[in-house]
Amino acid sequence: MAEEAARRAVAALPLLRTAAGPRDRDGWAPRLKEEYRALIQYVENNKRADNDWFRLESNAEGTRWFGRCWYIHELLKYEFAIEFDIPVTYPSTAPEIAIPELDGKTAKMYRGGKICLSDHFKPLWARNVPKFGLAHLMALGLGPWLAVEVPDLVAKGIIQHKEK
Predict the structure, then answer these.
(1) Is the distance from CB of 97 to CB of 141 less than 8 angstroms?
(2) Which one from 29, 43, 81, 116 is the annotated catalytic residue?
(3) Whole-number average pLDDT of the chain
(4) pTM confidence score
(5) Are strands 64-73 and 76-85 parallel, antiparallel or unpaired?
(6) 69 catalytic, yes or no?
């Protein structure tokens, strides 16, 4: 069911066309506009579906991104700060999202709080370069990761709701 919901969410996202990263001075601005359009579309779609779960913003160059994401588990909201940098080889290489406050709390995370996306998401990203962008990273990377990890971390008592 969750996989089908992810497919529908991604199908509603625009595919990106510009194959440019931050080092490409002429191509990065058009790519960044496409990224913002896709992110805005994804957020609007989520709000219409009553599934709003993150806020994201970037520095002026669009190379450093930060914000907050949340996951509702057993009617309790678990909220986390997120951050990532656009790799110099973007869009060939997907960004690595970090949730610093969960660093070291799960095996599905690398040093510095970077979430593990290598098994499932990175091959999918590689097959869809340059069509996938940050909205796809959120929909197919961070969203599913939170859906698996947050309930597990709560069940193990590793994280607790802030009001408890």
Answers:
(1) yes
(2) 116
(3) 92
(4) 0.93
(5) antiparallel
(6) no
